[in-house]
Amino acid sequence: MADEEKSPKPIKVVDRRWFTGTGEPREGRQPLKRPEPRRDSGVAAGAESRPRESARPEAQSHSDRKPVRGEGAASGQPGRGGVSFAALVEFLAQQAILLLTGSEGVKPNRSQAKVFIDFLGVLQERTEGNLTNDEKQMLDDVLFQLRAAFVQSGR
To answer: Is the pTM of this model over 0.90?
Structure first.
């Protein structure tokens, strides 16, 4: 097999980013075409238009509501569309921490971090009485930790 030694193929690096480091579009890149709005072709020209009946059942209180299949926000299971309450809280908290501490390419920005912490505070206020005990505890803990980190970052 030593006779079959081949020289390695040269590696070719191609930059396929759409924009330069300054945010200017790169040469030769065409902007993406926006999809045209769909036209409702399902209605015949002379058909009578009638209002749609709502697919949603009448509003129910949270305690009377039965869980929807796949809905398990406290356990981290996806709910509607693959997103859970826990995922939303985690996303907002991660953004706040990133802006408080900074990272590669991201400078700390306390005012922007405060916006995400405030989002979580609004979420806490608006969901009062509608969360499970686990969801409420998780949100309370995350908010406490973020607020403490915010105060410490100002020192």
So the answer is: no
